[in-house]
Structure formats: structure tokens, C-alpha cells
UniProtKB/TrEMBL annotation:
<dbReference type="InterPro" id="IPR036390">
    <property type="entry name" value="WH_DNA-bd_sf"/>
</dbReference>
<feature type="domain" description="HTH gntR-type">
    <location>
        <begin position="8"/>
        <end position="76"/>
    </location>
</feature>
<dbReference type="InterPro" id="IPR000524">
    <property type="entry name" value="Tscrpt_reg_HTH_GntR"/>
</dbReference>
<dbReference type="GO" id="GO:0003700">
    <property type="term" value="F:DNA-binding transcription factor activity"/>
</dbReference>
<keyword id="KW-0805">Transcription regulation</keyword>
<comment type="function">
    <text>Transcriptional repressor for the pyruvate dehydrogenase complex genes aceEF and lpd.</text>
</comment>
<dbReference type="Pfam" id="PF00392">
    <property type="entry name" value="GntR"/>
</dbReference>
<keyword id="KW-0678">Repressor</keyword>
<dbReference type="GO" id="GO:0003677">
    <property type="term" value="F:DNA binding"/>
</dbReference>
<dbReference type="InterPro" id="IPR036388">
    <property type="entry name" value="WH-like_DNA-bd_sf"/>
</dbReference>
<protein>
    <recommendedName>
        <fullName>Pyruvate dehydrogenase complex repressor</fullName>
    </recommendedName>
</protein>
<keyword id="KW-0804">Transcription</keyword>
<dbReference type="InterPro" id="IPR008920">
    <property type="entry name" value="TF_FadR/GntR_C"/>
</dbReference>
<keyword id="KW-0238">DNA-binding</keyword>
Amino acid sequence: MAAGRQARGRVEEVMRKLETAMLDGTWPAGARLPAERLLAGQYGVARNTVREATQRLAARGLLQSRQGAGVFVTEQLRTGFASPWRQLVADHPVLRDDILEFRRVLEGATAYFAAMRADAAFLHLHTSVIGMLREHITINGTGLRVQDEDASALLLLQHRTLCEAICARRPEEARTAMQTHIDFVRSRVEQPGEGASA
């Protein structure tokens, strides 16, 4: 009985890791997953554990097994989360600033708590939310790079500062770094009606 629970727990843990990799962009839509034996070695589990986890995710429509070709990430996460954001912002450009304000509060708080307790469950929740906002982040990042050649370097520096604060478990510094980043983006994105979508 206990062994069965442990096996289920391992399958669910691998599922979470696979989902996180899909949400954070490690394996985008259309990507082929590594072979079962490689994933088993990476996660420290048996191959049948990986097989069951991928089968469950396939049953949910997140993965697709192609005979003789491997297991691939489907479009479901992208179409389920990202596209509505793109359409919403396209239909209502004034929402760009509202979304950035929302991100400033939400991502500042998540950076703070990530620095306090960077455990797997919190990371999964964080990447799920970021997955929903990824398209908005991508649109803004592209708009910034078009406007300002130095923006890429500045954005990289901001993300590095945030990462260092989280890894060093400095929550106040992490929150400030994230809020500074969002403020930078808000100050640089094009205003609605001025040209390219941001």
C-alpha cells in the first residue's frame, strides 16, 4: 500500500517537473521531449515512472506521442493561456499599463516569497502564472528591443540581479529588483496608438 502511494507520488512529481519545463519555455510547443531513459536519469526515477507521467500528460492533451518519432509538446498550453492575453491586449491597448501594474504587484510578491522559500511547489505555482503572462512579457520585450538597442542588455542585467537576490534568499531585495524591472518596462513601452504593439 505504502509502495503504491510512493510510486504515485513519484509519477506526480515527474508530471510537475515536466509541466514546469513546458510552462517556463524549456520545452515550447512542438518540442520533442528527451528519451525516457534520459528523463529517468535526470529525475532519478525508473523509466516506467516517466512513461506513466508522460501518458497522463498526453491524456490531458499537453503531450502527444508519435509512433516512431517520440513524445512532443502540444499547443494546448500556448493556446489555452497565451492567446487570450494577446487578443485581449490587441483589442484593448489601454490594458497594457493595467497588466504591467498587475505584474508589478504579483511578480514583486512572488520574487519576495521565492527568495524566502524556493521550494518546488512554489516554483510550480510561479511558473504556471508566468506561463499565463508569457505572451504579454514577450510582446513588451520585443517592443523594447525595437525601440532601444541597449534594452536587451539592461533587461538581462535586471533579470540577473533578480536571480541573484532570489538565490541568495534576500526577499526584500528580490521584490525591489522585480518592481524596478517592471517600472523600467512601463517607462519604456510605447504608449497606445504610437506605433508597434508593446
